[in-house]
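=== RUN LOG ===
request id: a7f3
mode: sequence -> structure
chains: 1
length: 339
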Amino acid sequence: MPLGFFTLAISPRTLTAIAVIVVLSLVHARGLRAGRVLQNGLAAVKVTALVALIALGMASGHGSFGHFAGSGTFRLSAWTAALIPVMFSYSGWNAATYLAEEIREPSRNLPRALGLGTIIVVLIYLGLNVVYLYALPIQRFDIRIGQNATAQLLGAGSASSLTALSALILLSSVSAMVVAGPRVYYAMARDGLFFASAARVDSRSQTPRAAILAQALWSCALVLSGAFGPLLTYTGFAVVLFAGIAVASLFVTRRKFAGERRAFSAWGYPVAPAVFCLASFLIVLVSLREQPRASFAGLGIIAVGIPLFYWVRRARRLTPGVDEAEFDTLKAAPKSVKA
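=== RESULT ===
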Protein backbone atom coordinates (compact mmCIF):
# COMPACT_ATOMS: atom_id res chain seq x y z
CA MET A 1 0.00 0.00 0.00
CA PRO A 2 2.06 2.98 -1.25
CA LEU A 3 1.85 6.16 0.84
CA GLY A 4 4.12 8.56 -0.99
CA PHE A 5 7.69 7.97 0.22
CA PHE A 6 6.54 5.13 2.49
CA THR A 7 5.05 1.76 1.52
CA LEU A 8 2.75 0.05 4.01
CA ALA A 9 3.17 -3.74 4.04
CA ILE A 10 0.21 -5.63 5.53
CA SER A 11 0.46 -9.43 5.61
CA PRO A 12 -0.01 -12.32 8.05
CA ARG A 13 3.69 -12.00 8.89
CA THR A 14 3.58 -8.29 9.75
CA LEU A 15 0.31 -8.67 11.66
CA THR A 16 1.80 -11.52 13.70
CA ALA A 17 4.87 -9.43 14.49
CA ILE A 18 2.71 -6.50 15.58
CA ALA A 19 0.62 -8.79 17.79
CA VAL A 20 3.79 -10.09 19.47
CA ILE A 21 5.09 -6.56 20.10
CA VAL A 22 1.76 -5.39 21.53
CA VAL A 23 1.26 -8.42 23.81
CA LEU A 24 4.80 -8.33 25.20
CA SER A 25 4.61 -4.56 25.73
CA LEU A 26 1.35 -4.92 27.65
CA VAL A 27 2.82 -7.66 29.86
CA HIS A 28 5.88 -5.59 30.73
CA ALA A 29 3.76 -2.47 31.26
CA ARG A 30 1.72 -4.35 33.90
CA GLY A 31 4.66 -4.57 36.28
CA LEU A 32 8.14 -5.87 36.98
CA ARG A 33 6.97 -9.14 38.53
CA ALA A 34 5.07 -10.37 35.47
CA GLY A 35 7.77 -9.10 33.12
CA ARG A 36 10.53 -10.76 35.16
CA VAL A 37 8.83 -14.16 35.15
CA LEU A 38 8.20 -13.94 31.40
CA GLN A 39 11.70 -12.80 30.49
CA ASN A 40 13.54 -15.25 32.75
CA GLY A 41 11.41 -18.12 31.45
CA LEU A 42 11.96 -17.26 27.79
CA ALA A 43 15.69 -16.74 28.29
CA ALA A 44 16.11 -20.06 30.13
CA VAL A 45 14.23 -22.02 27.46
CA LYS A 46 16.14 -20.25 24.68
CA VAL A 47 19.60 -20.97 26.09
CA THR A 48 18.71 -24.58 26.90
CA ALA A 49 17.31 -25.18 23.41
CA LEU A 50 20.34 -23.65 21.67
CA VAL A 51 22.80 -25.66 23.75
CA ALA A 52 20.79 -28.83 22.97
CA LEU A 53 20.82 -27.98 19.25
CA ILE A 54 24.61 -27.59 19.30
CA ALA A 55 25.11 -30.87 21.19
CA LEU A 56 22.71 -32.89 19.02
CA GLY A 57 24.09 -31.44 15.80
CA MET A 58 27.70 -32.29 16.63
CA ALA A 59 26.72 -35.77 17.87
CA SER A 60 24.62 -36.62 14.81
CA GLY A 61 27.56 -37.78 12.69
CA HIS A 62 25.91 -36.44 9.51
CA GLY A 63 28.32 -33.58 8.95
CA SER A 64 31.95 -33.34 7.89
CA PHE A 65 34.94 -31.73 9.57
CA GLY A 66 36.38 -31.39 6.08
CA HIS A 67 34.18 -28.29 5.66
CA PHE A 68 36.47 -26.45 8.09
CA ALA A 69 39.33 -26.76 5.59
CA GLY A 70 37.36 -25.15 2.77
CA SER A 71 38.71 -22.04 1.15
CA GLY A 72 37.16 -19.11 -0.64
CA THR A 73 37.82 -15.56 -1.73
CA PHE A 74 38.42 -13.00 1.01
CA ARG A 75 37.84 -9.26 0.71
CA LEU A 76 38.50 -7.14 3.79
CA SER A 77 35.82 -4.56 3.02
CA ALA A 78 33.13 -7.20 2.47
CA TRP A 79 34.19 -9.07 5.61
CA THR A 80 34.05 -5.86 7.67
CA ALA A 81 30.59 -4.98 6.30
CA ALA A 82 29.42 -8.48 7.22
CA LEU A 83 30.29 -7.69 10.85
CA ILE A 84 27.24 -5.39 11.03
CA PRO A 85 24.73 -8.25 11.57
CA VAL A 86 27.31 -10.02 13.77
CA MET A 87 27.55 -6.98 16.04
CA PHE A 88 23.76 -6.78 15.97
CA SER A 89 23.67 -10.36 17.32
CA TYR A 90 25.82 -9.26 20.24
CA SER A 91 24.04 -5.94 20.76
CA GLY A 92 22.26 -6.93 24.00
CA TRP A 93 25.49 -7.36 25.95
CA ASN A 94 25.21 -3.90 27.54
CA ALA A 95 21.43 -3.80 28.09
CA ALA A 96 21.68 -4.70 31.77
CA THR A 97 23.10 -1.23 32.45
CA TYR A 98 19.77 0.31 31.41
CA LEU A 99 18.15 -1.42 34.40
CA ALA A 100 20.81 -0.52 36.97
CA GLU A 101 18.35 1.41 39.17
CA GLU A 102 16.07 -1.62 39.36
CA ILE A 103 18.75 -4.24 40.09
CA ARG A 104 19.47 -5.44 43.61
CA GLU A 105 23.06 -4.66 44.66
CA PRO A 106 23.95 -3.24 41.23
CA SER A 107 27.64 -2.75 42.08
CA ARG A 108 27.92 -6.54 42.47
CA ASN A 109 25.22 -7.96 40.21
CA LEU A 110 25.58 -5.63 37.22
CA PRO A 111 29.21 -6.57 36.41
CA ARG A 112 28.26 -10.23 36.85
CA ALA A 113 25.36 -9.87 34.44
CA LEU A 114 27.53 -8.12 31.85
CA GLY A 115 30.41 -10.58 32.15
CA LEU A 116 28.43 -13.82 32.30
CA GLY A 117 25.94 -12.66 29.67
CA THR A 118 28.69 -11.77 27.21
CA ILE A 119 30.54 -15.07 27.78
CA ILE A 120 27.37 -17.13 27.31
CA VAL A 121 26.43 -15.29 24.10
CA VAL A 122 29.95 -15.68 22.67
CA LEU A 123 30.03 -19.42 23.41
CA ILE A 124 26.57 -20.06 21.95
CA TYR A 125 27.23 -17.88 18.88
CA LEU A 126 30.52 -19.64 18.10
CA GLY A 127 28.97 -23.04 18.87
CA LEU A 128 26.17 -22.47 16.38
CA ASN A 129 28.63 -21.40 13.70
CA VAL A 130 30.70 -24.55 14.31
CA VAL A 131 27.55 -26.67 13.93
CA TYR A 132 26.58 -24.88 10.72
CA LEU A 133 30.05 -25.33 9.24
CA TYR A 134 30.09 -28.99 10.31
CA ALA A 135 26.80 -29.49 8.46
CA LEU A 136 27.44 -27.55 5.26
CA PRO A 137 30.38 -26.03 3.37
CA ILE A 138 30.68 -22.29 3.70
CA GLN A 139 29.69 -21.80 0.03
CA ARG A 140 26.15 -22.91 0.98
CA PHE A 141 25.75 -20.38 3.79
CA ASP A 142 22.78 -18.06 3.25
CA ILE A 143 19.90 -16.59 5.23
CA ARG A 144 18.39 -20.08 5.63
CA ILE A 145 21.56 -21.64 7.01
CA GLY A 146 19.86 -22.62 10.27
CA GLN A 147 17.09 -24.62 8.60
CA ASN A 148 19.40 -26.16 6.00
CA ALA A 149 22.03 -27.20 8.54
CA THR A 150 19.44 -28.70 10.89
CA ALA A 151 17.86 -30.68 8.04
CA GLN A 152 21.28 -32.01 7.06
CA LEU A 153 22.24 -33.06 10.60
CA LEU A 154 18.93 -34.10 12.18
CA GLY A 155 16.69 -34.90 9.21
CA ALA A 156 14.26 -32.98 7.04
CA GLY A 157 11.51 -33.05 9.68
CA SER A 158 13.69 -31.20 12.19
CA ALA A 159 13.62 -27.97 10.14
CA SER A 160 10.09 -27.21 11.38
CA SER A 161 11.30 -27.66 14.97
CA LEU A 162 14.05 -25.14 14.31
CA THR A 163 11.47 -22.69 12.97
CA ALA A 164 9.59 -22.95 16.26
CA LEU A 165 12.86 -22.51 18.15
CA SER A 166 13.71 -19.43 16.07
CA ALA A 167 10.32 -17.93 16.93
CA LEU A 168 10.98 -18.60 20.62
CA ILE A 169 14.41 -16.96 20.38
CA LEU A 170 12.86 -13.91 18.75
CA LEU A 171 10.20 -13.75 21.48
CA SER A 172 12.91 -13.66 24.13
CA SER A 173 14.88 -10.98 22.26
CA VAL A 174 11.82 -8.78 21.68
CA SER A 175 10.83 -9.17 25.33
CA ALA A 176 14.32 -8.12 26.48
CA MET A 177 14.24 -4.98 24.34
CA VAL A 178 10.73 -4.13 25.55
CA VAL A 179 12.28 -4.04 29.02
CA ALA A 180 15.55 -2.28 28.19
CA GLY A 181 14.61 0.29 25.53
CA PRO A 182 11.99 2.30 27.47
CA ARG A 183 14.41 2.69 30.40
CA VAL A 184 16.66 4.70 28.07
CA TYR A 185 13.81 7.03 27.09
CA TYR A 186 12.86 7.30 30.77
CA ALA A 187 16.39 8.33 31.76
CA MET A 188 16.64 10.81 28.88
CA ALA A 189 13.30 12.39 29.82
CA ARG A 190 14.25 12.57 33.49
CA ASP A 191 17.43 14.45 32.52
CA GLY A 192 15.42 16.90 30.40
CA LEU A 193 16.58 15.47 27.07
CA PHE A 194 13.33 13.86 25.90
CA PHE A 195 9.56 14.29 26.18
CA ALA A 196 8.54 14.67 29.82
CA SER A 197 5.80 12.02 29.50
CA ALA A 198 8.47 9.33 29.00
CA ALA A 199 9.70 9.95 32.55
CA ARG A 200 6.34 9.21 34.17
CA VAL A 201 6.26 6.03 36.24
CA ASP A 202 2.87 4.41 36.79
CA SER A 203 2.00 4.39 40.50
CA ARG A 204 0.59 0.85 40.44
CA SER A 205 2.89 -1.03 38.06
CA GLN A 206 6.02 1.01 38.86
CA THR A 207 6.96 0.92 35.17
CA PRO A 208 7.45 3.70 32.58
CA ARG A 209 4.23 2.81 30.77
CA ALA A 210 4.22 5.78 28.41
CA ALA A 211 7.76 4.99 27.23
CA ILE A 212 6.90 1.29 26.76
CA LEU A 213 3.79 2.04 24.71
CA ALA A 214 5.57 4.69 22.62
CA GLN A 215 8.30 2.20 21.73
CA ALA A 216 5.64 -0.36 20.81
CA LEU A 217 3.97 2.08 18.41
CA TRP A 218 7.25 3.00 16.73
CA SER A 219 8.23 -0.67 16.43
CA CYS A 220 4.90 -1.49 14.80
CA ALA A 221 5.45 1.31 12.30
CA LEU A 222 8.85 -0.16 11.39
CA VAL A 223 7.30 -3.62 11.00
CA LEU A 224 4.72 -2.20 8.60
CA SER A 225 7.56 -1.01 6.37
CA GLY A 226 8.08 -4.70 5.54
CA ALA A 227 11.76 -4.11 4.69
CA PHE A 228 13.54 -6.64 6.93
CA GLY A 229 16.93 -6.50 5.20
CA PRO A 230 17.33 -2.70 5.18
CA LEU A 231 15.92 -2.49 8.72
CA LEU A 232 18.55 -4.94 9.94
CA THR A 233 21.32 -3.06 8.15
CA TYR A 234 20.54 0.47 9.30
CA THR A 235 19.60 -0.63 12.80
CA GLY A 236 22.83 -2.62 13.05
CA PHE A 237 24.68 0.36 11.59
CA ALA A 238 23.29 2.61 14.34
CA VAL A 239 24.08 0.03 17.03
CA VAL A 240 27.75 -0.17 15.97
CA LEU A 241 28.06 3.62 15.58
CA PHE A 242 26.61 4.45 18.99
CA ALA A 243 28.48 1.64 20.71
CA GLY A 244 31.71 3.19 19.44
CA ILE A 245 30.62 6.68 20.52
CA ALA A 246 29.56 5.43 23.96
CA VAL A 247 32.90 3.72 24.59
CA ALA A 248 34.77 6.76 23.24
CA SER A 249 32.99 8.87 25.86
CA LEU A 250 34.95 6.93 28.49
CA PHE A 251 38.10 8.80 27.45
CA VAL A 252 36.29 12.13 27.81
CA THR A 253 34.86 11.18 31.21
CA ARG A 254 38.21 10.01 32.56
CA ARG A 255 39.83 13.25 31.51
CA LYS A 256 36.99 15.50 32.66
CA PHE A 257 36.76 13.92 36.11
CA ALA A 258 40.45 13.15 36.58
CA GLY A 259 41.24 12.64 40.25
CA GLU A 260 37.62 11.97 41.22
CA ARG A 261 36.57 8.72 42.84
CA ARG A 262 35.32 6.36 40.10
CA ALA A 263 32.31 4.09 40.34
CA PHE A 264 34.01 1.35 38.28
CA SER A 265 37.30 0.38 36.67
CA ALA A 266 37.66 -0.31 32.94
CA TRP A 267 39.85 -3.39 32.45
CA GLY A 268 42.57 -2.91 29.87
CA TYR A 269 42.13 0.88 29.76
CA PRO A 270 43.10 2.63 27.52
CA VAL A 271 44.06 -0.14 25.03
CA ALA A 272 40.86 -2.25 25.17
CA PRO A 273 38.38 0.63 24.67
CA ALA A 274 40.63 2.16 21.98
CA VAL A 275 40.64 -1.12 20.00
CA PHE A 276 36.85 -1.36 20.35
CA CYS A 277 36.36 2.21 19.12
CA LEU A 278 38.69 1.77 16.14
CA ALA A 279 36.97 -1.47 15.13
CA SER A 280 33.50 0.09 15.46
CA PHE A 281 34.33 3.16 13.41
CA LEU A 282 36.07 1.03 10.76
CA ILE A 283 32.90 -1.09 10.42
CA VAL A 284 30.81 2.08 10.08
CA LEU A 285 33.06 3.54 7.35
CA VAL A 286 33.13 0.29 5.39
CA SER A 287 29.35 -0.06 5.71
CA LEU A 288 28.92 3.42 4.21
CA ARG A 289 31.02 2.29 1.26
CA GLU A 290 29.64 -1.23 0.77
CA GLN A 291 25.97 -0.61 1.65
CA PRO A 292 25.53 3.14 1.13
CA ARG A 293 21.75 3.18 0.71
CA ALA A 294 20.87 1.43 3.97
CA SER A 295 23.74 3.06 5.88
CA PHE A 296 22.79 6.58 4.84
CA ALA A 297 19.18 5.77 5.67
CA GLY A 298 20.35 4.96 9.17
CA LEU A 299 22.29 8.22 9.31
CA GLY A 300 19.20 10.06 8.05
CA ILE A 301 17.05 8.72 10.88
CA ILE A 302 19.76 9.70 13.38
CA ALA A 303 19.96 13.18 11.83
CA VAL A 304 16.22 13.66 12.26
CA GLY A 305 16.82 13.30 15.99
CA ILE A 306 19.10 16.36 16.13
CA PRO A 307 16.43 19.07 15.63
CA LEU A 308 14.05 16.97 17.73
CA PHE A 309 16.61 16.98 20.55
CA TYR A 310 16.92 20.79 20.57
CA TRP A 311 13.15 21.24 20.23
CA VAL A 312 12.51 18.99 23.22
CA ARG A 313 15.13 20.75 25.32
CA ARG A 314 13.59 24.13 24.50
CA ALA A 315 10.09 22.85 25.26
CA ARG A 316 11.24 21.38 28.58
CA ARG A 317 12.78 24.70 29.62
CA LEU A 318 9.56 26.55 28.83
CA THR A 319 7.25 23.97 30.43
CA PRO A 320 9.00 22.03 33.20
CA GLY A 321 8.00 18.39 33.29
CA VAL A 322 7.47 15.79 35.94
CA ASP A 323 11.08 15.46 37.06
CA GLU A 324 12.49 18.94 36.45
CA ALA A 325 13.12 19.50 40.16
CA GLU A 326 15.18 16.33 40.37
CA PHE A 327 17.00 17.29 37.17
CA ASP A 328 17.89 20.72 38.59
CA THR A 329 19.14 19.09 41.78
CA LEU A 330 21.37 16.76 39.77
CA LYS A 331 22.79 19.66 37.76
CA ALA A 332 23.74 21.42 40.98
CA ALA A 333 25.28 18.29 42.56
CA PRO A 334 29.03 17.91 43.04
CA LYS A 335 31.02 16.45 40.19
CA SER A 336 31.71 13.24 42.15
CA VAL A 337 27.96 12.61 42.47
CA LYS A 338 27.36 13.14 38.76
CA ALA A 339 30.26 10.83 37.84
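=== NOTES ===
The chain has a mean pLDDT of 83.
Residues 10-329 form a domain with the Amino acid/polyamine transporter I fold (CATH 1.20.1740.10).
=== END ===
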